[in-house]
Amino acid sequence: MIFDRYDRIRIVNLPARTDRRAEMIAELQAIGQATNPTLAFFDAIQVEDAGLFRCAGSHGCYLSHLQILEEASRAGESVLILQDDCEFLPAVHDDNLPTDCDILYGGYLASDPSDLHGSDIIGAHCMGFSARAAAKAAAYLRSLLDLSTSPDPKAAAQPGFNPSMRPPIDGACVWFRRAHPELTTVFHLVANQRSSRSDIAPPRFYDRVWGLRSLTALARSLKRQLPHPDPVREANPSFVRKPASPRR
Question: Is the pTM higher than 0.70?
Answer without folding.
Answer: yes
